[in-house]
Amino acid sequence: MKLNTHSSTPLYMQLKQSIIEDINKGIYSPGERLPTETELCDIYGVSRITVRKAVLDLVEEGLLIRQQGKGTFVQYPKVKRELFAVNGHAEYMSELGKIPQTKILSFGIIPAPANISKSLEITPESDVLELQRILYYDNQPLTLEISHYSLKVLPNLNEHVHNSVSMYDIIKHKYNITPVHNTKLLNMVLANADEAKFLECEVGDPLFKVEKVAYDAKRQPIHSSFLYYPANRVTFTIDSSMSQEKGNESPS
């Protein structure tokens, strides 16, 4: 599709709009590599400078993403994740009509480090199950999860872990325990080499880091987790409300 060189609209803006329209039409699909600069010049009949300006703008706007040594790709739409949600990854994917996908990187029993034993309210060096996984959305890594489960609360949990089951399903059906509350701490960090490898992003890319502790109905800690999300793939939403009774309270 050649652009209109006689239009008052700058060519790079016309090119941006054409690429956006082609993405919306499915000509370029999410996760697909965009044609090279030379190919884009031929397709749209513009100079390399025009292509670079248009592509750079679309990268900055989050529609495209550059991967060093691989090219420029169409960005997946951001996933919306409720920050206060108590459900696990499998439950969340099911709500979206998606098939949950996970990949276990490692798991095993370790002595609880001081920060983990404090979060789980157990004696330091107590046995915990450490589970490291990648959680996917439409075949793309969405989350790097590093979790620790209290074996005091969930004895022999390590015998039930595998890729095709939800951890929360195991906890509910094998132990009759339901996570009903959690606390979360949200920070922004930069991806290190391991995080970039597992999340298929660049070293130094911004990540959301969520530190989470899940509790049962008796406020007993079940597990603690560190969750890393590429900032360009997820948007956190917050749905909060004040109870009617509290809202009607008069100041004393």
From TrEMBL:
Q: Which keywords, in A-to-Z order, does the entry hold?
A: DNA-binding, Transcription, Transcription regulation
Domain named HTH gntR-type is located at 9-77
Q: Which N-terminal residues, if any, form the signal peptide?
A: none
Q: Which domain of life is it from?
A: Bacteria
> Pfam families in the record, alphabetically?
GntR, UTRA
Record bears the keyword Transcription? yes
Give the matching SMART domains: HTH_GNTR, UTRA
Q: Any idea which GO molecular function terms this record carries?
A: DNA binding; DNA-binding transcription factor activity
Entry keyword DNA-binding: yes
Among SUPFAM superfamilies, the record links this protein to: Chorismate lyase-like, Winged helix' DNA-binding domain
GO biological process terms, alphabetically, are: negative regulation of DNA-templated transcription
Q: Which PANTHER family match?
A: MANNOSYL-D-GLYCERATE TRANSPORT/METABOLISM SYSTEM REPRESSOR MNGR-RELATED (PTHR44846), MANNOSYL-D-GLYCERATE TRANSPORT_METABOLISM SYSTEM REPRESSOR MNGR-RELATED (PTHR44846:SF1)
Protein name per Swiss-Prot or TrEMBL: GntR family transcriptional regulator
Provide the species name.
Peribacillus castrilensis
